[in-house]
Amino acid sequence: MKKHIKWPVKAVVNNVRYFRDLSFYLLKKKRVNGEPRVRYHKEGRISADYDRPVCFFCSFDQESVVRENVYYYLKQLALAGFDIVFISSSDAISNVDLKKLSEWCIRIINRENKGYDFYSWKTGLESYSQYSAHTGLLLANDSVLGPLFSIKDIIARLENHEGDIVGMTNCLLFYPHLQSYFLYCKKAVIVSKEFIDFFNRVEVLEFKMAIIRRYEVGFSRLLGRRFKLSALYDLDSAMNRFQPGDRPKNWTEPTSHLWKPLITELKFPFLKKSLLTRRGVSMEEISATLAESGSTYNVNILADWIAPPYNMNTHKRSSGPALKKSVAGPDPWWDNSALNNRRENKRI
Q1: Phi, psi of 198 (to 5 degrees)
Q2: Radius of gyration (Cα) for the chain, nearest Å?
Q3: How far is Cα 261 from Cα 241, in angstroms, rounded to an integer?
Q4: What is the pLDDT of residue 314?
Q5: What is the DSSP string of 118-133?
Q6: Of 21, 59, 278, 318, whose CB is crowded by the most CB atoms within 10 A?
């Protein structure tokens, strides 16, 4: 009986807490002085190819550094066939990082840190209006580590999938929706009135739970009225296969509660950073899971993110153990010869 009561009670408590916190946030909210300012907007060394989909990639770092794990993700996206618009809401982008980013990106944008990812994507749409000329649009961010496995055929998988909007994972919490760390929108979606109207209405919000409910969930609710939504790693299929204890399906967040079997059994290509930073999963457990899955992802590229010594739970420096940087030769993710031809043929 207690198990049956637990989840409905938890839902009520969470809703009460949400509306209480939202009320406090709205009461304390100061008037925003205009939209977040775009500090930097420049073309990269890669020319746009409208026969390829474009990826709007959001990134933020408290120390204004583009980490090696982010560069690795960007390279794999580029090699998979995406043009990349990099949108940073860090305080700045160093000249060193600007040079590196220009090797993989068609555009580089730095804006004020207001509004989280959905406002970054809005900034991307406004700053790079040519997005609608591309074959599709991927909305992505640096909240995940990976790809843990090859994504060289990911565009074909996305385009051949039954959905008009395809995510990696879906979730039923609050309302059935695709999770926003990876959202692929096909051509018919990105030229639609519904898509344009949704982002026109995106405002600066700093209350994260309100962003999840209003924008992450709201995106699926609004666009789902016209377009078919689907996930490559569908929650129903995963729950039927893995049967995760007594946790109900509508209380299951797949990247948190099913992360290990998703990786070891389904070769799921991403790992949420929050598993390390907020949920207390150790690097040892992650390394063992990757080894079991056959992933070739090199965890040493995380060294500049969690070391020198770094407390994974608090994001603060500590005296605890840390990963050591690999010294085995040059960085393989900077072997960018595959894109040289596109740079040489860049339009003036």
Answers
A1: -60, -50
A2: 20
A3: 9
A4: 37
A5: HHHHHHHHHH-GGGGG
A6: 59
Instruction: Between 127 and 336, name the one with better pLDDT.
Output: 127
- What was the pLDDT predicted at 148? 98
Query: Which residues have C-beta within 8 Å of that of residue 132, sequence separation ≥ 6?
Result: 190, 191
Q: Which pTM does this prediction carry?
A: 0.82
- Helix (H) or strand (E) holding 220, with range, is helix 217-223
Amino acid letter, 234: D
Instruction: Report the percent of the chain where pLDDT is more than 90.
Output: 65
Summarised one tens digit per residue, pLDDT across range 5-24 is 564 555 444 554 544 444 54
Considering only CA atoms, which of 65, 251, 95, 271 is closest in space to residue 171?
251
DSSP string computed for 274-305:
HHHHTS---HHHHHHHHHHHT----GGGGHHH
- Total number of residues shown for the chain: 348
Structural domains of the chain sorted by starting position, each given as residue range(s) with its CATH number in brackets: 29-234 (3.90.550)
Cβ atoms of 316 and 322 within 8 Å: the answer is no
SS3 253: coil
* Distance separating alpha carbons of residues 75 and 317, to the nearest angstrom: 29
| CB distance 177 to 216 below 8 Å | yes
Task: Write out the two tokens for 236.
Answer: 């129903």
| Contact status, residue 202 vs residue 115, Cβ threshold 8 Å | yes
pLDDT per residue as tens digits for the range 249-273 = 877 899 999 999 999 999 999 999 9
